[in-house]
TrEMBL record, chains A, B:
Single GO term (MF): L-methionine-(R)-S-oxide reductase activity
Gene Ontology CC terms, in alphabetical order: cytosol
Every GAF domain range: 63-170
SUPFAM superfamilies: GAF domain-like (SSF55781)
Official protein name in the record: GAF domain-containing protein
Source species of the chain: Zygotorulaspora mrakii (Zygosaccharomyces mrakii)
PANTHER family registered for this protein in UniProt: FREE METHIONINE-R-SULFOXIDE REDUCTASE, GAF/PUTATIVE CYTOSKELETAL PROTEIN
A Pfam family of this chain: GAF_2
Organism ancestry: Eukaryota, Fungi, Dikarya, Ascomycota, Saccharomycotina
Stated family: Belongs to the free Met sulfoxide reductase family.
Length: 175, 175
């Protein structure tokens, strides 16, 4: 399939978000046909998400994952693209912790108005967090987290496709 | 300590590589005082390396880790910043695989002249790979891998400080 790096090239999609998000899902599937290691797959997935959104000129400043540390009922920082981030988030705290505890996508137009927002980066204005759930046990495995420097950057279309990505990750990765 | 994201700000170091690399080590230590999870710590470390080198106007296109999958005697893709990358590298193959097998830093001025180079991205011109070794068992745990779009981007100074980072990672992370 040529260079792996080319899978991060979303420039052909002509700025249409839905086409880019479809390509994101297809590229994730291609990368995980023979690979079920969660660290490996989430590392490449964070790159796909980052380059997908950046190619659409959406000014995201962070894209990646927090995963569940069962021992302590907390989320731990997983693979991501962007600046250094908070290492631990208690279940139920912050936007990520709420998504993990409720298993409901959190779509936040303005993080400063979210009562439980934990700020890792003062530049972040809006955020989407999507839970990744084990299909069998129904336990939360991880969350997808994307931050943007603009208010109201995410909409139902992002939710729809990122939830599909979350489902794919749950199916393709052994945590 | 303010926003975690601020630890990725190397702009005050006035373009002096040694100061930036010292700050990289100090920021890694600050982030890992109470944290020994290897996925969490390598995720933040990849961000520190990326922003350190980019702040020096060194045109790196990839910074991150491959970790050892003991079952298969291979390296698996770990946390990184940059474009999508190859998921697996056999021990002894490619520049990463040689670093893992020999436990010697590989400093490659021109990847096209390296007989065993595995190309994940055609833009890469030079590369440095530093092994991370368990201090007790002396087994390879992972490698630090940095790629640059310019020839001959890395020198003995990079080797010296990145080997210190590799040693710190070996001491601060449970794999």
């Amino acid at each position: 399939m040529g260079y792996h790096a080319n899978l991060a090239d979303f420039s052909d999609v002509d700025d249409r978000k839905e086409e880019a998000l479809k390509m994101l899902l297809e590229n994730y599937k291609a990368l995980t046909i023979d690979q079920n290691n969660w660290v490996c797959n989430l590392s490449n997935a964070s790159s796909l998400i980052w380059h997908c959104y950046r190619s659409l000129s959406i000014d995201i400043n962070w894209a990646g994952f927090y995963f569940v540390n069962d021992d302590k009922k907390e989320l731990l920082l997983g693979p991501f693209q962007g600046k250094v981030a908070c290492q631990t988030i208690p279940f139920g705290k912050g936007i990520c912790g709420v998504a993990a505890a409720t298993q409901e996508t959190q779509l936040v137009e303005d993080v400063d108005k979210a009562p439980h927002h934990i700020a890792c980066d003062g530049d972040t204005k809006s955020e989407i967090v999507v839970p990744i759930v084990n299909n069998g046990t129904k336990r939360t495995l991880a969350v997808i987290d994307i931050d943007c420097r603009d208010f109201n950057a995410f909409e139902d279309l992002d939710k729809e496709y990122l939830e599909q990505l979350g489902k794919l990750i749950g199916e393709t990765c052994i945590f």
